[in-house]
Each structure stands twice: as C-alpha cells, then as structure tokens.
Task: structure prediction
Amino acid sequence: MTWVTKTLQSSLGRKLIMALTGLFLILFLTGHVSGNLLLFKGDGGQAFNMYAKFMTTNPGVKLLSYLTYISVIGHVIYSIFLTQQNKSARPVSYSTSNGSSNSAWSSRNMGVLGTIILIFLVVHLQGFWYQMHWGNVPTVEYEGETYKNLFEIVSFAFQNGLLVGGYVLAMVFLAFHLSHGFASAFQTLGLNHKKYSPAIKAIGQVYCVVVPALFASMPLYIYFTS
Amino acid sequence: MILDSKIPAGPLAEKWTKHKFNSKLVNPANKRKYDVIVVGTGLAGASAAASLAELGYNVKAFCFQDSPRRAHSIAAQGGINAAKNYQNDGDSIYRLFYDTIKGGDYRAREGNVYRLAEVSVKIIDQCVAQGVPFAREYGGLLANRSFGGAQVSRTFYARGQTGQQLLLGAYSALSRQVANGKVKLFPRTEMMDLVVIDGQAKGIVTRNLITGAVETHAAHAVLLCTGGYGNVFFLSTNAMGSNVTAAWRAHKRGAYFANPCFTQIHPTCIPVSGDHQSKLTLMSESLRNDGRVWVPATQEIAEKLRKGQIKANDIKEEERDYFLERKYPSFGNLVPRDVASRNAKYVCDEGRGVNETGEAVFLDFRDAIKRDTRKIIEQKYGNLFDMYKQITGEDPYEMPMMIYPAVHYTMGGLWVDYNLMTTVPGLYALGEANFSEHGANRLGASALMQGLADGYFVIPYTVGDYLAQLAPTKVDENHPEFARAKEEVKQGIERILKINGTKPVDYFHKKLGKIMWDKCGMARTESGLKEAKAEIQALKKEFWSNVKVLGTNEELNQTLEKANRVADFLELGELMVDDALNRNESCGGHFREEYQTPDGEALRDDENYAYVAAWKYLGEGKEEELVKEELVFENVKLTQRSYK
Amino acid sequence: MKLTLKIWRQKNAADKGGFVTYVADHVSKDMSFLEMLDVLNDQLTEKGEDPVHFDHDCREGICGMCSLYINGKPHGPLQTTTCQLHMRSFSDGETITIEPWRAKAFPVVKDLVVNRSAFDRIIQAGGYVSVNTGGVPDANEIPIPKTVADLAMDAAQCIGCGACVAACKNASAMLFTSAKVSQLALLPQGQVERKTRAEKMVAQMDAEGFGACTNTGACEAECPKGISITNIARMNREYFSAVVSSDNM
Result:
C-alpha cells in the first residue's frame, strides 16, 4: 500500500474526498443556477438555448463537466464507504437517543438527504441532460444557426404539477444537505480560523437557502406563467 | 530492630549528590535483565515506570482503574511547588526545604526534604519538555502564584487542573514506553499480596478485576506507588477506589508502617448533605484569599438558620462571628489548613454550625464582591462557584458558600529509608504511599512535587543501586513462595464470599468512617481513642461474620473489590488509633486535646516525640510493635508555629 | 422523589443483555446520580440481587472514569460528568433509561461498564513528546505565547471519558484524538514529532474501529470539558499536511 492509497482509505482521507468533491459540486451548483437564470429572461428561451449549446460543446466546459461527473460519483462512493464504517462502529445502537439536543437534524441525516438528492439527480438527468445529449430534441434557429430547443422541453416538462412538486421538494432536501455540507467541508479541510469561520458559516447559511430557492423558483415560474 | 534511615553524612546540600555518586550502577547491557514491578500509576507510579523503562529495565505497571490516566493524582487542583525563584522574590532550595520542614511541624527528615526541594526544579523542566501546558505570562514565561500562605510565589499551575496535566504528562511518558514494549501495562488489576523470598521482595499476587483470575508476577524489585489511605474515613476527598490494600498487605509481609495517625484535614470542602453521601469535594484553598469565614455569634441564631427560619443574609453584621479573623488577626482567613479546620470544628461543636446537619461554616464573598465587583470575583473563581452551584444547587454569588473540613491527604505511610526502600529489601514506596517528606502536615502544592520527585529523579538512582547488587538472572516464579502467597489470596477471597451475612460492605465502611472521623479525626483524646479501638475491633468482628458479598470471584465483582479493601481499612484504622494514642503531643494534623497551649494551639513535645513512629506487624490479632526512628535536626531550629 | 429506572444489565461481554426496570424510592434531590445508584445497589444487595456495575472513581468530574448514557445523552442532561450530575436535574415520577456507552471500540464488560483501552492505544501511538527523564532544557528556555499555551491547555483538559464517542452518531473518536494532536501541535515541544504523531494517531484511531467524523458537533456539545471541534479541524490540517510532506511512506 502506498501512502496515497493508505491516506485515501483512512477516515480522514475519505472525509477529504467528501469535502473536495462536495465543494466542487457547490461550485458546480453556483454555475448551474446562474446559467439557468436565463430561463427568466422572457425571450422565448433563446438565451437559454444558446447557453445550453455552449455548455454542451465548449471544450473547457466539457472538462469541467467530466470533473462534475467524477465528483458526483466520488461523493457517492465515498459516502457509501463512510456510512459502512460509521455503521459498523456502533454495532449495538442505543434504545433511547436524544440527538436533537446536541446536533442539527441535517447534520445527522446527510446520508438520507444525499440519497434523496441522488434519486432526484437520476430523474433530473434523465429528463433534461440525457434528452439534450441523445434524445429527440426539436430544434430552433437563431440568426441562421440551429440550436436544440431545450427550453421547449423544460417548459413542457414543468407543465406537470407533480414534477414541479417533486423538484421543489428535492430542492428543500438539497437546502438541508447544503446547510450542513457547506461549512462542514471547510471544517474537514481544516480551514478553521476564528476570524474566518464565522463568515464561512454565514455564507453557507445564505447559500443553502438562496441557491436551492432559485432552482425551485424555475419550475414554479414556468408552471404558473404558462 | 534499629531503623537505619541511611541518610548520607555530610553537609545538607551535598548529601544527594554524594549519595548518587556512591550508588552502584547497573551495566547498560545488563539492565534488560532486571524486572521491576510498579503498582499504581499516579504521579509517582507513572513517572517511575516511565523513567525505569527509559533506562532499560523491564517494567510491569499495575493499576486498578481502567487506564493509568485515571489515578487520583489527577484530581489535584492547586499546583506544584518548585524552588525555581523565577519571580526573584527570595525563594531558594533552602527556603523550600525550610518551609516544608516547618510546615510539617518538624516531624520529617531533613535529608529527604532537602533532596525534595533540590530536585523540585528539575520536575518543572521535565514537565514542560513533555508538553505540560503550565500557565504563562504574556511574555511567554511561566507564571507562578503564592499558595497556601507561602511567602514566595513558587507554585506552578495549569488552571485549576495541575494534577491532571502533570499526570497526563507522566502518563504520556509511560504510554511511550508501553509502545516501545518496555512497560507491560496491567489495568483493572489489583495487587493482593507481596511475595517475599528469603527476606527480599520478589513479586506480587494480583487479581484481574474482570476475570477474577489470581496471578503471580515476579520481579527483582517492587515499587508501591499506591497513594494514601484517606478512605479509611469513608468520606474523604479521595477517589472511591483509593485504598490501602497494597500497602497494608506489604505491611503484613514485613514493611513497617510509619506515622499512620498523621492525616491532613482540608478546611474548604463542600459539607455533607445526607446519609447517601459517597465522597466529599474539595473547593480550592485559594477561595480563602477573598472569602471570609464566619458563623452566627450565638447558638440561638444558628438554630434558627438550621431550621430554615432565617437566611444567612438576614443575619446582621454584629451577629456574625468571623472567628478566624478574631482569633488570628495577622493571618486571618489564611491560617494553615489544620488551624482553619480545627477552628471550624470548634464553632460547630459549640452548636453554631450553619447547615441542617450543624456541620458547616460560611465562606462569604459578599464583601469581596462589594469591594472588587462581581466581575472580578467571577474571573478569579468562576469555575469554582459553578462547581459549588452544581453540587449544592445554591448560588454563591447570592448566598454565602457553606464549607466544612474533610480528610484530604495522609502524611503517614510505609516507612522508607533515604532510598525509598521499605524495611523489606527490594520493596520501595513512593509518593503518598510512603511517609517520608511531609512530617505531620503537608504544605499545599507539595504532594505533586513529591510524587514526581520520587518517580522521576530519586528512584532511578536508588533502585539501580539495589539491583546492581543482585545477580542478573530471572526471578524464579516457580518458587513455592509464589504458590503459597497465591493460595492465601484465594483463600482470603473465598473467606469473604462465604460469609453471606446481611449487611452490605458500605455499612461497615460508613461505620468505620464515623468512628475514625469522630474519634481519630481533627481532634483526638485519649479516652476517645480508647473507645475507638474497642469499637473498631467489634466492627471488624461483625464484618467477618455479617458482611454480604454476592456473586463469585470469577467475574467483575465490584462488591468483592470493596470488601477486600474495607477489610484492610478495618485493620489500618486500629493501627491509626494506636499511633494517635501513642503520640502524646499535638503536631501538625495530629491534635490531641490534652496537649494544647492555653490559647488552644497545638503543643509539640520535641523532647519525647521527635521521632518517626514505625509499626511492625506481628500477626493476626496481635498488637503491633512500635519501632522509633529518632529525627535529627542539624540545620533547622525547632520553633512553635504561630499565626496570631 | 420516586423514579423508575430502566437499566441495561449484561452479565459479561458474551451475554446478550437487556433492560431491567427498578423502582428507586426516597431519592433525595441532593444526591448525585451515582449516589442514587449506590443506594439502589445497597437495596439490591440486601435483597440478594447482583448490584448494578458501573465505572466511577474520583466523583469530582476529573478522572473520566464514570460514563452512562442517560435518557439518550452521555452523562445525562447537563454538560458535566455523570458524577457531577445531581438528582435535582430530574423530576419526581420520571422514568430514566440508563445504557452503557455504545461503540465497537468500547465493548461492554459488564452491565454499564465498558472497556475504553482503545483510547490508551491511541495515545500510545504517538500522544507524547519523546523525551527521556533528565537532560531537558530549563523550563523557561523556550517562551510560549500565553494565547498558545491557553489554547494548548483548552485541548489538554480532555479527561478521556469517551462521551464524545458515545454522543457521536458514528461513534467517532475524532474529538479525543484531535485534543491530544492539537495540544502537542500547538506547543513548541511537540514540533519535532508533529507529522509522525498525526499520522500514527489517526491510523490507530481507525484501526480501533471508531467511525469517521460528520462534523455534527455532538461531541463538543456533550464534552464535559467543553473541548472544541476546532481541534478536529486542526488535526485534519495536521494530518493532511503530514501525509503530503512527511518522509513516512
């Protein structure tokens, strides 16, 4: 075993992977939500569709997207490793446990929240990402160039109240996941300082509300405006 | 037998240096051929085990707790003395030596005490190098405070947890040797007997507290670092598990027990709240720097207070008796521990005690808060006030604290010579388990100093001297003495388990404690002691016919552990009474009411009692034999302590 | 006060164990929690029943020997050790559930007694400064800023009771391990072995079978000595910088 594999198998190494992938996914979410804000532009989806094309064709973005896939997979796999380790560390559980008195609910249920988010992710990718890449997407022309009309797919999908409800709910779970995950990643990386940690915590608390809320507002906006 | 203290001749300041030079050395290559047993892992035990293992000896370390880090040294709050003179306030090795001898009311050996003061400076260096986080000044240098009425600031401290930090330092050194394979650790293992072959200590018999297995361990030398015996009083500031068993069983195998009646009573403890009380909690002595000790001036007012008809704050200034300030105008509330304790007892005996049981006095911070503001008092004593509130449910910022003396430390212990060797060759006693450095009264912040001095800096030299005289061959564990001692231990356990009487162990322990506290506690009289002796003998008889210990030996059996220990306390209690009866004088922690000055102070009798009373065990049911070691004072002049 | 006690009884490590309910009568509010159990044990003994075994020693909150998971919290409702918990924290008629610490690394020995020697082994892995007795520099040779000494003391206060492990949903020993790593990483005396120490202590912690850290903060909230999880961050920092820069392969 080399020092690298040894480190990655240690509980701290595993946590390091979780923190790094988690932080990268937070960056990804930031980019994703900013781009998707184009849905609100009210130009019949032109800007959004152009953005979608850019995102699927630009080589730099491609590289980032591979990193994102790796991060998602890494985050999930290492969370499984960690959950196994954590479960086996307490083979007999308490009959009475009063966890709410010493820790936040979200921090104790990151695995559950993550699993729900993962299920959402599968549905979400199937609905849009898969369609965009390999599906039968109608096209539209802007200034002589052909674009896949992802906006139409999105607009159509969010006519479905059930799906919209599901998306909003998923964002609530994401919010809880981030409410702990954001600051926790910094703590795991050892980035703790009495000058900066309060700011990191505050940013995390704002972030975990604003980003999922923006995401949730998109299906809601489409549902109620169409 | 004449007791030879083996104090080296020559000037005081050169004794230890000379002695070290004259000690024989074990060849470095031969050290691994010697085995040493260390019983107890407190300051003395952990430091000794680590230091001897570093030298290359094979060490086996035993403790009854689940980890060496739990030894009761951990509970020491105040600090550790060292003659560093970092504060430029006139301290020196000689002054620490002098203060310790005088504080001990001239019942300790000059040579030992001087050595203690001499090595004290090295202890601080050692602990800092281990990473002990002592308190520091803003400039980064070590902070000191004056402690227990000392005229110089020589006490090093780590918040109110100095004992903890020093013990964890020694524990870390010990852990390092465990990792190196030089120390084999036996936690949850209790020493049950000493194995003596041809007059030399060659091993011990232990009981594994989890499985009940009785086992033998052989070694070239045995070190008892097993602490004091304050739990003979049932209620004390000692840990629940602190016991005399190892020392007592060694005593029965030939080690003399010295000055057993010298007990230190600490004045500032939280009073007893009821029959359920299992132990007493010490509040740091530093509280007396700002708190004023008082009781109501009359019995009538105290009566009302006890019945809950009035509260402390209702009592007017002129109806309060600040008895320490009244009797000792120059030292006031800061008189030494024994004086403060005894006076608290007197006013309570007069019926002026302030809690329901009538055994408490007030320690009042009202004036200090008025003078310095609550904020400053909070900074100084916040954690102590919180602790008090936690235990009693009362807020000391609003109501005066209630305190009462409690047994805290035992100066007596196994008799040892200058080498810390007992009267059994190869058997050593270190720290509180021996009797040697504190005389009749220990100064604050000196217990930690002694434990570490013995373990780090004395025993590595003196054990070497002894081992160098032994052949480097394994001690034969197949010697019939091992089997015999083991068999006797097993029989002893069986004997207790077979009684199956009606009373739990604590019933006897509490009764013994009450006898000791009432008659062999803060103030003793000849008649009281004689009564105590008869009562203890009767109690002992009752114990052996009516104690109820359930379960078997072959399991974790905490009642059995307790019963074994109480059986020994019953025997020790009687010896303490004998010793107190023999010592017809008052000195330090030993106050015989018959021997006091007209104004009620301790009256020493240097002519007849300037000796160490060492007791020799002669057999079951026989009176022990007193052997005297005369104390020689070549450097200090014996004076009467006065705190007026 | 009259209380119903639901106590975990287990004869030995091999036994399966289960809860037994007892009624404690005449409980005084001034009793400590352990004194309440003492009284129960005396009553059980008189009735000929095996007393409840639990660990305890100093009973003043410093030795770290007492444990007990009381009503779903280590050391009970207050942030103290069980020995410093008094019955006035409970109300008349209450049912109290008492369990042992639960962790793979802390196997039950009997009833409420667990084996915490895993902690000793973590310290043995590197929780020390390798200096022999004697031959050390003068104590004032290396000045240490007061703030640093105070931070080291904050970490050094750990009493090794294991409440952090008991409180953690993952039975993680991060707070315990980090307190020692932190103390020695802060002090100049600990610098020489800084990297190796972090690596070895973390490895031992994992080998003992403790869980990983989810940063829930439960350990800090329950620690009777208030050890901060900033120590965990410091240990992570120490560990990561050690593995990338140390000479240990």
In short: The mean pLDDT of chain C is 97. The domain at 3-110 of chain C is CATH 3.10.20.30 (Ubiquitin-like (UB roll)).
